[in-house]
Design goal:
The complex is a heterodimer of chains A (336) and B (326). Chain A is mainly alpha-helical. Chain A is built from 14 helices and no strands. Classes of the chains: A mainly alpha (336), B alpha/beta (326). Bound molecules: adenosine-5'-triphosphate, iron/sulfur cluster and magnesium ion.
Amino acid sequence: MLSFILRRIAVVIPTFLGVTLLAFALIHMIPGDPVLVMMGERQIDPEFYASALKRLGLDQPLYVQYWHYLLNLLHGDFGTSIVSNEPVIREFLTLFPATLELSLCAMIFACLLGLPAGMLAATRRGTIVDHVTMGSALTGYSMPIFWWGLILIMLFSVSLGWTPVSGRISLEYDIPPVTGFMLIDTLLSGEEGAFKSAAHHLILPAIVLGTIPMAVIARMTRSAMLEVLREDYIRTARAKGLSRGRIVIVHALRNALMPVVTVIGLQIGTLLAGAVLTETIFSWPGIGKWLIDSISRRDYPVVQGGILLIATMVISVNLLVDILYGVINPRIRHAR
Amino acid sequence: MLLDIRNLNVSFGSTAQPFQAVSGLDLAINRGEIVGIVGESGSGKSVTMLALMGLIDAPGRVTADALQFAGQDLLGMKAAQKRQIIGKDIAMIFQDALTSLNPAYTVGYQLMETLRLHTPLRGAALKQRALELLEQVEIPDAKSRLNAYPHQLSGGMSQRVMIAMAIACQPKLLIADEPTTALDVTVQAQIMELLVNLQKQNDMALILITHDLAVVAEVAQRVVVMYAGEVVETSSTELLFNTPRHPYTQALLASIPEHSKGAKRLSTLAGVVPGQYDRPSGCLLSPRCPYATDTCRTQRPPQLPLSGTSVRCFTPLNDSGIPSHE
Ligand SMILES: Nc1ncnc2c1ncn2[C@@H]1O[C@H](COP(=O)(O)OP(=O)(O)OP(=O)(O)O)[C@@H](O)[C@H]1O
Ligand code: SF4
Ligand SMILES: [Mg+2]
């Protein structure tokens, strides 16, 4: 198992290097003089210009710049925001829990609904249950996030008044960040009603963000289940006299999960892309909103570092999925 | 009598245009008896057994006048009740052992799953019994095999595991559907020998579906010959091999060398088993039968009892192998 994990990690290293190269190139692909672009193309005095160039390391040859860039990365230096003068990594780490919390809840929502829906559709194949479930999944899949978010806000926040429109928690609460997860921090703070408020704020964005992954998971679960249910070992399980429920959950689902887990992993990219939009719609203070704001503020070090950090995250998640895949499927684990 | 099936019908396809995969099948099995079921590909051997096990799914339809097993009526039984018999008193093994084991679970898990379901064994005793079973099916190094995954086993080894699973609760009836077809020749003989030994030790009835007539002649006490979903002849092994009464049986026997090697067609009879759309109206064999008459082409022959055998033919063959009316 350990050697399996190490082999997986080795495969990922070149990908990671490629991403650093891209992030590095980004700053050089900005049309025009990066310093001028960042400073807002105002008239600035040459001395300040030279010092800015030096500070950004842009006076060195490209390969030296890249080398320094890599060395800095190794030391955890992902650049410094030119707006707040804070290290990018610190801003990222402050905001990331908000995005992670949102994404996790979206994914939990997607799995909680998508897996049973797919299983139900597969075991009731061809019936009205199947058609309704898969029809809904298709609708969910093709729903533009922005539009879907607005519809839900109109319905649940504006018309029914059930949920708040924006933010992570009602302004009346001042929750000290401990874990960065609002749901957990509110519980830790012991403030009455804080958890409820946080949950209320979270529910709509999580549903909006989780809708597409849910649809994908439901469809994937259905087709994987249908495939597996035709397998010889399902016939064996039935010939043992096992109950229908045990056959579906123990014998079929375990095998059907392999492609589903992959799909869930692949959804992480989609999820982060969706998070950018969702966070913007709901003013959710996470890295998606942060990136969008930084782009409009022309805070390029933040954009560069943020993209690299997000890419690193996607790579790590895919790695995790790969490893998980090996845990579920003994054949992959044992393959040399 | 252990098993008594009367007038079993299995059909697939739409109700308007059903395909009778099995029709009017009668089958009786005694305790501790070995019965061979033979017939070309598509004659309904597997479907019959799957219907008995309750493994035919909608839109397939199963009907019967009687389905008695060890004095119990399987027909009127609730599904949950039937599941206490299936896998315990009636067990089945299949052609492709490699794909018949779940790739996600260890051999031990799958073996103990059966035991946990049908016996009160738990914990160390459960594991001990699983180990015994693997030893009983002559798996070397049984202890370490408990933790092996199916993909780490050879075909022969997988079939042994399947057999261990099937005999786990000492069934009264074991159905082996072409248990050796997918295996190497040398392994085939070992698995057959194992099956017959286990049958003797456990005093269980064994239904052996196979294309290998030589094996049937060697181990079976009785033989059932099926063609296009019907039983065309059934008798003791000795009678059947010495004096086949049905033209189809005669053709099967005449083609033993190739057929037992798995040839899909009979060299002695032109054509193949009729499928859904080309079933003839008279005797199902009539398009291929060398002795077919006009009556054969328009009317269905009934199953006739005939001195110790039962034959579905208007003109059963006599001792010299020619139709009785000539
Ligand atoms: N699920 C099903 N749906 C429709 N037709 C089926 C189904 N299962 C079997 N059949 C048909 O029923 C007929 C009998 O099939 P069966 O598998 O019982 O043959 P067999 O005698 O076991 O042949 P073989 O020696 O190849 O195993 C075939 O024509 C087959 O195509
Ligand atoms: S009934 Fe006629 S066609 Fe059918 S097997 Fe007998 S002789 Fe042949
Ligand atoms: Mg078959």
